[in-house]
Write a structure and sequence with these properties.
The complex is a heterodimer of chains A (254) and B (369). Chain A has nine helices and ten strands. Chain A is of the alpha/beta class. The longest helix of chain A has 16 residues, at 182-197. In chain B, helix 4 (86-96) crosses helix 7 (163-189) and helix 7 (163-189) runs antiparallel to helix 13. Chain B is 69% helix and 1% strand. Classes of the chains: A alpha/beta (254), B mainly alpha (369).
């Protein structure tokens, strides 16, 4: 249950959000967000829909632009500078709710395109890396298939492998199991759990509270663009401090 | 006592089996399609009557009483049917226009190269790097043959070009130049840089607001007025550029429709795996866009082929203009309908082949999606 990997938490922050504010037109979607994630640590963000939890992690690799405050990833501050954005994106892998695999490319090409084009990794080396990762996400024999021929759970595991191809230091998960049929959720969560046990720094937006309890170092509850509560899972689930958290937990834990 | 539930379901015990055979006899089919009700029966009767009146006359004119070959127009005059003899009599002028008579073999080679390579390009197995090389070689060969001046070939000015070689070169040039230009315009239209976006929107909207005839007139008559003294650009080239830009504006709108159909997640995924703008566009977005827009793009391509007939208006002798010149001959002028029908069949065969080919590509690309 506890993280036993050698390269676990080193008490060195890798992702830092300081006083981050963001608006969609006039709508104040992120209000003064402060969040620090240590290297090797796993943070689960939960909250009702529209609470801004996806927006937070999308700001971390600049899929969304924040208007106020600082975001630092591995000591690189995110600004409008395209080179900094590229530098941050190389350190950060992302898994989406709707997989977003490239439908016109084979699984192998989905994996190798990023490293070969963006980092100049030789094709053969990229394919070796891809084979290794496909074994790790337990779909070693599907490399020649197209995404449309795979089940949802398999597609999401390919997406995880694709995000790992650039050897990121942080993995972002944006509701990775929300688009899956119930019988496929566990195969994706198993892969994520293994990744966590291997010491990867992870920030997950998810409603899978079992996963949060098992894997997270910190659970963050957001509502209406604010961080309402942040606590280790034991405390978060057994003894939440805020009434809003308690109400939310009672709704999703039945 | 709890209320009694009357809902129920029985567990199934049935192995899978083939669907039941459709029992559809031809009399049933006939009734369903042609005599469903009184209205439908009347329409069927009317249609049969119309066919009965027209078809035998058409067959008598086009086949039974037709003159297929003669060198004397008087034979046609004596016959009651179509005079197809005008085609063998005039086909060299119709197909090659103003192209010098003794050099027609060069035009034949050009037609063979363009049509042959186009046919080869439709075979999916041959799609490779070598096909691009073949097209480059073919382009060089086509222009060598048409222009001459090397390898002992007599030089031929573009003002002497005509007929099917001119139509084909104009068409291929329009499409090959117009699709990349259209893609760039569509991307430019969505650019975040206001100057580029405004430029592209302006160009597309202006060109779409003008009839092709006016664009060609501008290229042929007005454009030389703006050029400095002594600088002239070849009339064929001017028409080619005008046709290409006209096609590009329409292609741009087709591509824009496809770009809008690509989910935002595809752009975001490309961003997160570290691709830059051009890598993202050429490897991720545009391949998907081109699949989506294939039917409407093929529509524009077929239209571009038919639009080549407009260059006749500014004095280039494409197939249609060459044909209308060929039938000026007072001896044969009364048989112009037959000549135009021949050209109609030529256009139809080429357009229909393109349309069928696009259908097949669509089917092929649908596999694995």
């Amino acid at each position: 249950m506890t993280d036993t990997a050698a390269n676990a938490s080193t008490h060195e922050p890798i992702v830092e959000l300081r006083g981050v504010n963001k608006w969609f037109d006039d709508f104040h979607v992120l209000r003064d967000i402060n969040l620090t994630v240590g290297r090797g640590e796993k943070v689960v963000i939960c909250g009702p829909s529209g609470s801004g939890k996806s927006t937070v992690i999308r700001c971390i690799n600049r899929l969304e632009e924040h208007q106020e405050g600082d975001i630092l990833v591995d000591n690189v501050e995110l600004t409008g500078d395209i080179r900094r954005i590229d530098a941050v994106r190389r350190k950060v892998g992302m898994v989406f709710q709707s997989f977003n695999l490239f439908p016109h490319l084979s699984v192998m090409d989905n994996l190798t395109l990023g490293p070969t084009l963006a980092q100049g990794v030789p094709q053969q080396e990229a394919e070796q890396r891809a084979d290794e990762l496909l074994r790790r996400v337990r779909i070693p024999d599907q490399a020649r298939k197209f995404p449309g021929q795979l089940s949802g759970g398999q597609q999401q595991r390919v997406a995880i492998a694709r995000a790992l191809m650039l050897r990121p230091q942080v993995m972002l998960f944006d509701e990775p199991t929300s688009a899956l049929d119930p019988e496929m959720i566990h195969e994706v969560l198993d892969v994520m759990t293994e990744l966590a046990e291997a010491g990867m720094t992870m920030i997950c937006v998810t409603h899978e509270m079992g996963f949060a309890r098992k894997v997270a170092d910190l659970v963050v509850f957001m509502d209406a663009g604010e961080v309402v509560e942040a606590a280790p899972p034991q405390q978060f689930f057994e003894d939440p401090a805020s009434e809003r958290t308690r109400l939310f937990l009672s709704q999703i834990l039945h | 006592m709890a209320p009694i539930c009357i809902s129920s379901a029985k567990p199934t015990h049935a192995p899978p089996r083939p669907p039941p055979q459709r029992t559809d006899s031809w009399s049933h089919w006939l009734r369903r399609n042609f005599f469903q009700n009184a209205g439908s029966a009347v329409m069927t009767a009317l249609a049969l009557w119309a066919l009965f009146v027209t078809v035998p006359r058409l067959v008598r004119w086009a086949f039974v009483n037709a003159v297929w070959y003669t060198q004397d127009a008087a034979d046609c005059h004596a016959a009651a049917g179509a005079c197809w003899a005008i085609v063998p009599e005039k086909y060299r002028v119709m197909l090659f226009g103003t192209f010098p008579y003794e050099e027609h073999w060069r035009g034949v080679l050009v037609i063979a190269i363009v049509l042959g390579l186009s046919a080869l390009s439709t075979i999916r197995r041959l799609w490779s790097y070598w096909l691009c090389v073949a097209w480059l070689v073919a382009t060089a060969a086509v222009f060598t043959l048409l222009l001459g001046g090397v390898f002992g070939l007599r030089p031929i000015g573009t003002h002497e070009w005509g007929g099917l070689p001119l139509t084909l070169v104009m068409f291929v040039g329009t499409v090959v130049g117009g699709i990349p230009a259209g893609i760039l315009l569509a991307l430019g239209r969505r650019s975040k840089m206001p100057a580029i976006s405004a430029l592209c929107v302006g160009f597309i909207e202006i060109v779409r607001g003008l009839p092709l005839v006016t664009v060609l007139f501008m290229a042929s008559l007005m454009f030389p007025l703006f050029m400095p003294e002594g600088v002239t650009i070849d009339k064929f080239l001017r028409a080619q550029i005008a046709m290409t830009l006209f096609f590009a504006a329409y292609a741009a709108e087709v591509v824009r429709g496809g770009l809008q159909a690509i989910p935002r997640g595809q752009y975001e995924a490309a961003d997160t795996v570290g691709l830059n703008y051009w890598q993202k566009m050429t490897r991720i977005i545009l391949p998907q866009v081109m699949r989506i827009v294939l039917p409407s793009m093929m529509n524009e391509i077929i239209r571009a082929f038919k639009n080549t007939t407009f260059v006749g208006i500014i004095g280039l002798f494409d197939v249609l203009r060459a044909t209308s010149t060929a039938i000026q001959d007072p001896v044969w002028v009364r048989y112009s309908i037959e000549a135009y029908l021949f050209i109609f069949i030529l256009y139809f065969v080429l357009c229909f082949a393109m349309s069928k080919y696009s259908e097949r590509v669509e089917r092929d690309l649908a596999v694995g999606r």
